Amino acid sequence: MRKIPTLFARDPEDRRSVTTEVNPGCEWVLAGEGTATRKYDGTCVMLDEHGDWWARREVRPGRAAPAGYLAVDTDPVTGKMQGWEPMARSSFAAFHAEALAGGGDWQPGTYELVGPKINGNPERCDSHTLLRHAAAEVVPTPVRDFDSLRRLVLDLAAASGAEGVVFHHQDGRMAKLKARDFQIS
């Protein structure tokens, strides 16, 4: 699980917002390449090929990684390390257990754990649930310019609680755009 780049560059004066400048390497999105899917607003978890569940975990510079942590990547700008911690050690373990108890055909891959006790429940779920990223809802993006994409993600968030969209290129590249990238403070 590598950090997905944001489509537009962050504003150097307010890193919470983006500018109209496209991040290098993400130009393919505005060229109309790839497919957009809904970005769920929860916490990322993974089922590995051995049947073990993991929770996404970020470790800040200077902090020790938790026991059993699998480091994947380090953000060159913030120095934060991204990786996985065993689900049993995660603060989301009880909610994850509730989601598993609800049943499902769990295949190796990544999922978004959503529900009443996660991020204020923007997905508006009645119980904790696992949503498979590989089966995420496709979001039509007929026009791909800054203003159109801004409108799209803000409308999607207002209508359904979606965090934003993730663009998937056929070659594996990804880029994301979140509603909060456009929030004006």
For this entry, give a set of tags.
185 residues, Dna Ligase, domain 1, 3 helices, 2 domains, single chain, alpha+beta, globular, three-stranded antiparallel sheet
Q: Can you put this structure into words, describing what you see?
A:
With about 180 residues, the chain is an alpha+beta fold. The chain has two domains: about 1-40 and about 135-185, Dna Ligase, domain 1 (2-Layer Sandwich), CATH 3.30.1490; about 40-135, no CATH class. The chain is about 15% helix and about 35% strand. The protein is built from three helices and eleven strands, in the order ββαβββββαββαββ. The strands form three sheets. It has a six-stranded antiparallel beta sheet. The protein has a three-stranded antiparallel beta sheet with strand order 3-10-11, with helices on one face. A two-stranded antiparallel sheet has the order 1-2. A hairpin with a 5-residue loop joins strand 4 and strand 5 (about 55-60). The longest helix is centred in the C-terminal third of the chain and has 15 residues, at about 145-160. The two termini are about 30 Å apart. The mean pLDDT is about 95.
Task: Write the topology of this structure.
Layout: E1 8-11, E2 14-22, H1 27-30, E3 35-39, E4 43-47, E5 53-59, E6 70-74, E7 81-86, H2 93-101, E8 109-114, E9 129-132, H3 146-160, E10 164-168, E11 174-178
Antiparallel strand pairs: 1-2, 3-10, 4-5, 4-8, 5-7, 6-7, 8-9, 10-11
